[in-house]
Automatic annotation (TrEMBL):
Superkingdom to which the source organism belongs: Eukaryota
Domain (Peptidase M11 gametolysin) ranges: 3-156
InterPro entries according to UniProt: Peptidase_M11 (IPR008752)
The protein's name: Peptidase M11 gametolysin domain-containing protein
Length: 157
């Protein structure tokens, strides 16, 4: 079970770090401040609970927290495609690599929006043809302002 704690107003942590919540990564416990950016922020609550499942902060342009498309950054929407995959909450429509996507071929895919369900919610590209330079996968997903993603910023819609 996950356990959420809310600090009483008179016991707010005095620290040089500006925190709204903290969590075990991974773990079962998370702590929140009694403020708008703490327990009263669904983005903060979701981020800390997802830390309990082992996710780390969202990055964008080499800046931590700068991904506003997910609660793991500073958004209030559902997890992104790579986060959904890491959590085991969604499966790829296709996994493309040097053996499944040969050179000089093309493929067509009909990718559903991630809010429609967990099956076939992304295309996972594993660029193993890069040899030792292959360190990260690429995920393609369609995000639409609906359901759990209804608060997506327009740039991600």
């Amino acid at each position: 079970p996950q356990i959420l704690y809310v600090f009483p107003d008179h016991q707010i942590i005095r620290t040089s770090c500006r925190i709204s919540g903290i969590a075990e990564t991974p773990g079962t416990q998370s702590w929140y401040l009694p403020q708008d950016t703490g327990i009263f922020s669904k983005g903060t609550v979701m981020q800390e609970m997802l830390h309990n499942f082992g996710l780390y902060h969202g990055w964008r342009n080499k800046e931590e927290y700068a991904d506003f498309s997910t609660a793991m950054g500073r958004g209030t929407s559902c997890p992104s495609a790579p986060e959904l995959w890491r959590l085991g909450w969604a499966t790829p429509l296709a996994q493309l690599n040097s053996s499944t996507f040969p050179v000089a071929t093309y493929m067509n895919f009909t990718l559903p929006a991630t809010y429609l369900g967990p099956t076939g919610a992304m295309i996972k590209i594993q660029p193993d043809w890069l040899d030792t330079k292959y360190t990260k996968n690429l995920y393609l997903a369609l995000r639409v302002k609906a359901a759990g993603d209804r608060e997506l910023l327009e740039e991600f819609n």
